[in-house]
Amino acid sequence: MHAKLRATDLTRTFGTTHALGPLDLTIAPGEFVCVVGPSGCGKSTLLRITAGLTRPSTGTLEIRTADPRPAAMIFQDYGIYDWKTVLANVRFGLDIQKVPRREANARARDWLTRMGLADFADAYPSALSGGMRQRVAIARALAVEPEILLMDEPFAALDAQLRTILQDELLALTQTTRTTTLFITHSLEEAIVLGDRVLVMSARPGRVIAEHRPPFSRPRTGDIRDTPEFTALKGELWDLLRGEVHQDRAVAA
Ligand SMILES: Nc1ncnc2c1ncn2[C@@H]1O[C@H](COP(=O)(O)OP(=O)(O)OP(=O)(O)O)[C@@H](O)[C@H]1O
Ligand SMILES: [Mg+2]
Questions:
Q1: Can you tell me the distance from the alpha carbon of 93 to that of 72, in angstroms, rounded to the nearest whole number?
Q2: pTM listed for this prediction
């Protein structure tokens, strides 16, 4: 089967900062790949390259999509428009796809309801909390039913309870739709719950230093959080990551 996404020998520098790579990454159709790594190691840069928003300095990125549905990206800083209402923000990708207004409104409202924001359709983002704004960004990305979903720490700003609920929702959703997903997170729990694979990146310049497949068959639910296998893998990943975080702090100090 053809890879949905293939990065080969990717690097990115910004001036004298070597931000990323070299990095190779192949994602199969329907696969959910999570990336964890220390702050500043190039995770957002990797995602922006895959979204076509940043050019790699060297290397290539191939994305294979079957139909005109776009890859949808959820940004670390939300990326929602303050001058549009919540409903218009969620409808944004559907408007670009020229989905008829009535259907677009219905789909957007459906996603707002799922995100617990039904009462805020006509509000402006400035009236929302950070977590609510992030849910608007999630609703906007999922409303287009993207073929490839690129998510940059989408749940980072949410409280622990809501974060758990949305993890479980995303798990159920992607297992139904088999949406190919590249998901960046700081949270090892999140990566293990959601991922078919978890990639651990080194301190900057970010390279993939380890890859794990959480030993949980699909469809799975959030109940796996309570298993010994989950705790064991989390410990293993943290041992890897801890060294990289320390290395980064030593360099910064
Ligand atoms: N547009 C840019 N111009 C200059 N430097 C940049 C730019 N974007 C990223 N960088 C630098 O590249 C490095 C990687 O940044 P990036 O945002 O990809 O890290 P990250 O892993 O997403 O970090 P975090 O976990 O804190 O979000 C950092 O040193 C950052 O300062
Ligand atoms: Mg980032």
A1: 9
A2: 0.90
